[in-house]
User: Which sequence fits this backbone?
DNA sequence: ACACAATTTATAATATTTTTTCGTTTAATT
DNA sequence: AATTAAACGAAAAAATATTATAAATTGTGT
């Protein structure tokens, strides 16, 4: 097998991990034919991005809410940022609309806020936990898309369930992702999830990106929306003038907290 | 079996403990293939986290002061009946099949058993918790149907998601319900859930009813399967000769526990 | 071809996990 | 209560895995 690029290798690691749910550094080294040191640095990076959980000797899929394991510290830390983003997103939503939420944790935060509101909405989502959260509020009609469910992901995957989308008219889609650059648009790493997200983006009249500042300037493996598709870009920190201008040039409305 | 990670091992310990309610260090050492010392340190840690209570030679589930015996006993009783039914259902399933599970708690028990098996299957379900349970096992391809999610129900409702069913070939459907009589067939009370179940029944090559004895002879508001649709009827108590003959007459195979 | 940067590897020092050993404690039995 | 076998805890030893650092490799641009 020819040498892989870093990105390709990490992609492969995720593939293996998704299939097997666990992996050892040793086996990986044999399989991918690189040194263990290299893989450890891969795994370290990937853990920082929340793609997996490191253990001695290997790595496992991260555990998600709903499982008995306690939340990782990282989850909790980023929560504030997600709430800040979700609160701003609320302002865009109007009574009676039909909105689409992906399975991201930011959209889950938005769902938690919606649960407490007195506003009639139809919400379509690909996130299982998002749906479970929203159903608590009887003002909301909650539709969960169908598809493949896999360990390590609370999202539905694949386009099996996308024909539900043909049966509803969607005003706004709220989505997050693993990275955003002006060139690549919104990107994510799970190919199957991206497959579904791409379909979701197509259906939405307007697209709202929910991206915390750490994701700006990064890009992941596969893209599910071009920059031109985006109508609103919501983030948790004030942007640089240059970034701001770039958004303005493309007619994208930016929402971020006012200067502290 | 390859060496487990610490996390995995402790997870397994909890699994065993939850099932057996008690465990000995010695047996664990044999089962998990690590030294007793290692396990003792595991148990010590886990006790600190409140996951279990240490004893000489082993560990037990922690007992909570306010535990109400009556309620939990009754719960368990009901659960046992479901487990008895689910275990019999297992025998019908063959490697490589595609099965359909509804959102009933009996089907959820079946899912829990399947989670522990080493058998490759495709499982399509309308139960959210059923899907979450099954995804833990990588041998299983889990497909969740889409649809409306409502408060108080962990089932998907309505036929929105039923076109996923057109894309898979289903060998067996396992379903429960609120009532069964020979005249009305299988019945349930939630009309929207029934709407989806009806579609599911149509798709399955063979239909297996999972009904505890208390439901036999009762009938609910709407029917989702005629008696003639049923291939197997699984229950938790021995039937009367009359009931048995009635099933036989219609060519329905009955599975129930052998006389005590 | 050269220098520069990025990536990967080798190696050695650390750190973690597991087992072994052994004296002590506990529980069961006489 | 004395005896005995099993279970325990502490600490050293062994086995693995990780990190840091420097060296080697590869790719890039000039």
Assistant:
């Amino acid at each position: 097998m020819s040498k892989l690029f870093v990105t390709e290798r990490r992609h492969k690691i995720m593939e293996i991990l998704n299939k097997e749910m666990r992996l050892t550094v040793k086996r990986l080294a044999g399989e991918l034919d690189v040194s263990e040191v290299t893989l450890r640095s891969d795994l370290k990076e990937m853990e920082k991005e929340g793609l997996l959980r490191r253990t001695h000797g290997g790595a496992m899929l991260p555990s998600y809410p709903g499982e008995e394991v306690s939340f990782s510290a990282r989850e909790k830390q980023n929560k504030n940022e997600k709430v800040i983003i979700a609160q701003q997103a609320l302002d865009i939503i109007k009574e009676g609309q039909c909105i689409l939420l992906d399975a991201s944790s930011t959209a889950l935060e938005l769902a938690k806020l919606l649960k407490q509101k007195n506003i009639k909405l139809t919400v379509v989502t690909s996130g299982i936990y998002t749906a479970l959260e929203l159903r608590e509020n009887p003002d909301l009609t909650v539709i969960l898309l169908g598809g493949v469910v896999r360990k390590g992901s609370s999202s539905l995957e694949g386009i099996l369930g996308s024909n539900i989308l043909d049966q509803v008219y969607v005003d706004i889609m709220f989505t997050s992702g693993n990275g955003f650059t002006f060139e690549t648009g919104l990107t994510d790493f799970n190919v199957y999830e991206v497959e579904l997200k791409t379909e979701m983006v197509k259906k939405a009249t307007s697209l709202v990106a929910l991206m915390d500042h750490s994701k700006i300037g990064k890009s992941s493996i596969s893209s599910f929306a071009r920059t031109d598709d985006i109508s609103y870009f919501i983030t948790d920190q004030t942007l640089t003038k240059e970034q701001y201008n770039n958004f303005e040039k493309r007619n994208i409305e930016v929402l971020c907290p006012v200067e502290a």
Q: What stands out?
A: The radius of gyration of chain B is 21 Å.
